[in-house]
Amino acid sequence: MKKMLCAAALGLPFTPAPAFAGIDDTINNAIAPFSNAVASAIFYSVPIAGTQFPLIVGWLVGAAAIFTVYFGFIQFRAFGHAISLVKGDYSHPEDAGEVSHFQALATALSGTVGLGNIAGVAVALSIGGAGATLWMILAGLLGMASKFIECTLGVKYRKELPDGTISGGPMYYLSIGLAEKGKARLGQFLALFFSICCVGGALGGGNMFQANQAFQQVVNVTGGDASPLTGFGWLFGLVMAMLVGFVIIGGIKSIARVTEKIVPFMAILYVGIAFFIIAQNFSNIGWAFGQIIGGAFSPEGIAGGAVGALIQGFKRAAFSNEAGVGSAAIAHSAVITNEPTTEGVVSLLEPFIDTVVICTMTALVIIFTGVLDNGLTGVELTSAAFGAQVSFFPYILALAVLLFAFSTMLSWSYYGLKAWSYMFGEGQVAANLFKLIFCIFVVIGASMNLGPVIDFSDAMIFAMALANIVGLYILMPVVKQEVERYFAKLKSGEIRKVAATA
């Protein structure tokens, strides 16, 4: 996330626009007690080796490790096949669904690639040291298995509407799948719990937080406190809301058409600059990897040495790729396919790109440029690392933040809409009402300092994992049957590449 993650975990401040300070304080004071209680419960942490370890991270990473073993390290065995599927080698346009494998992957990635990749990684390194990078990569690799199981289930239990549109995600596989297992009441409760949390997370962490931090980054690169934009967050939010509204009014197909262009562009832009910086500091490569490996296993060091590095790395990966949260399964459910396993395989690439590639590139830039010990943290540390090489790179970083925030809002508008529709019906009136509310919240997020609101909404995002992973454990055997059936058909030649059938 966010992408989206707890504002405190990111270390990013929320600066209010002066004109709204009174309203801001009123909202904060009213919501803070409830918000703090919920956030404290969801992000409950225990002290380990001098640093705090959120139990929700253990819930996510532990499940990822179990799924990895249960499915025989599927993320490595099926990686090559995932590339083939994204290329369209096995795509059949006549299958049910609304978007291609590539579009579904791009939409899901747009919801996870964001501020967590830029600012969150810097926080992890400033606390856990360079060694956090190695554990972050490991957790990202494990998370690929979680994405695989939840996205396979998303397609298997999706709902095709009379007009050809698709609704899917944890709401449906929790309610329908668990009912098939004789646990209907549990499934209905978990599906409703997930939906409520998803709507809350979409409006906050997937919307207001993104708009707020995008505006703050624009202010930072245009003069900071002296910026002529200071106090005009509402105008920035209004423009952003109009752009978001223009895209989301067309549904998942419109969102997918935009994200399939934005995501590759912003990923290539960001990773390309990172590669340039690393190449310019190539003489430091031995030293940098020595810092990463040494820090990962050193018994001493900042924030608990090896244990502290492990915790920060696992936390960053879990907060960044959202594997196990269930959000991405909503986007992947709309894919054009009649084989649920295919989208599970495609989704393997999401944590790999988000965490193993993009988060790692951020970490390497910070380590290679030697700015890790300058006392900065968050997006300021990442910006300093980029600016250490070329003075105008922070402006490109600001562009990346804008693109990341915009694409995240697009994806989370869809996630929130599908959860909203599950609770209130698939009617167009209900859908339009949610889209209007979502756009209004863009303006609010850019204009106000909504710390407690954001803390609450981010807690909602990770509360989704409480319901989702319970369902994943129960439905693991169902996915295993799907996987075995699919790969047997692939091996026998019953499923062949499109070109081979022509």
Automatic annotation (TrEMBL):
Annotated membrane topology: Multi-pass membrane protein
Xref: Gene3D superfamilies: Amino acid/polyamine transporter I
Signal peptide: 1-21
InterPro entries noted in UniProt: Na/Ala_symport (IPR001463)
Organism domain of life: Bacteria
The keyword Repressor is annotated on this UniProt entry: no
Subcellular location: Cell inner membrane; Cell membrane
Keywords, sorted A to Z: Cell inner membrane, Cell membrane, Membrane, Signal, Symport, Transmembrane, Transmembrane helix, Transport
GO molecular function: amino acid:sodium symporter activity
GO cellular-component term (any): plasma membrane
Pfam families tied to this protein: Na_Ala_symp
TM region(s), chain numbering: 56-76, 118-138, 189-209, 229-250, 262-282, 288-311, 352-372, 392-417, 429-448, 460-479
NCBIfam families according to UniProt: agcS (TIGR00835)
Family: Belongs to the alanine or glycine:cation symporter (AGCS) (TC 2.A.25) family.
Protein's name according to its UniProt entry: Sodium/alanine symporter
The organism of origin for this protein: Roseibium aggregatum (strain ATCC 25650 / DSM 13394 / JCM 20685 / NBRC 16684 / NCIMB 2208 / IAM 12614 / B1) (Stappia aggregata)
